[in-house]
Design brief:
This protein is about 40% helix and about 20% strand. By secondary structure, the chain is an alpha+beta fold.
Length: about 140
């Protein structure tokens, strides 16, 4: 009976040790970058809502960001021709984490040759000031 109890205890310990983590450290880092982008994007869109008719680059100092927030990438935002573009350097994996955060929105993706990738039926155009390979979000201003 003692042997059976020890066996059950060992099987329980093995089950706990073999439980895979929900996500890796790399995935956690990508999610952190995605959340950092999302906070910046929300502040940029709030600025645009409060300053109707604004056009041009939105200065970081003009955004209302949480006091503890620090940019993990050099995010930028610009209003042009009635659209707000929020963009910045990101790896394809980080861009995918952003897309997942925004529930696979067609207005969020990587800039590639003047459009957002992935492209489905109707490509979303991106102006030349957004560098290829940048994560970009396009919304109406």
């Amino acid at each position: 009976m003692k042997a059976l109890a020890v066996l059950v205890l060992l099987l329980g310990v093995m089950a706990l040790l073999q439980r895979p983590a929900d996500f890796s450290a790399e995935e956690a880092a990508r999610r952190i970058v995605a959340m950092n982008y999302a906070v910046y994007r929300k502040a940029a869109l709030s600025f645009v809502q409060a300053n109707r008719g604004f056009s041009g680059e939105i200065p970081l100092a003009s955004l209302t960001l949480p006091t503890s927030w620090r940019a993990l990438r050099p995010w930028r935002s610009r209003v042009q021709d009635g659209f707000c573009y929020v963009y910045g350097e990101a790896s394809p994996q980080e861009a995918e984490a952003v897309r997942q955060l925004f529930r696979e929105s067609l207005a969020v993706g990587l800039a590639d040759q003047g459009r957002i990738v992935p492209v489905l039926r109707h490509p979303v155009p991106v102006p030349a000031f957004v560098p290829n390979g940048s994560i970009v979000s396009v919304t109406e201003a």
